[in-house]
Amino acid sequence: MSVLENWDHWKSFLGDRLNQAEGQGLNKGVVSDVAYQIGGYLAEQVEPKNEQERLLADLWSVADEEEQHAIANMMVKLVHNNGTRE
Description:
By secondary structure, the protein is mostly helical. The protein is built from four helices and no strands.
């Protein structure tokens, strides 16, 4: 099963990546920029696999750049300390 097919697995996956980034000393601004880039990639290249991803994709599609940055930052907050390696 793809990590994208289950919302809880997706959040855990993102949480793990966030914990790794923080462990490597990446600052909040870099993490935020990477989250924004990932959000853009997912919105353009990946079909949503569940209701939560569909909602995020729909919100992303109507958001301007500033709002997309806000969505990305909220996702970072949502998964912070949500990974398996805390």
